[in-house]
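Sat 14:20. Reprocessing the chain from the morning session after the first attempt stalled halfway. Input below, unchanged.
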Amino acid sequence: MSRFLLVGVVQELTDAAAVAGKLARLTGATYPAALLRTAAVFAGGVALAAAVTSALATAVS
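Finished this time. Tokens:
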């Protein structure tokens, strides 16, 4: 069960990062700037997922 949840979270993070990169390109950002925004969104999502997981683990135990 947890494996499927992890796959779903990673898929959503990837989708959000791709959308951020596409929006950056549509607004005229260069490719390096778009990649930087994509990486920032993905890293922020991973950090948020880690914080939520830690909080839930603390609350459960």
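The chain has a mean pLDDT of 90.
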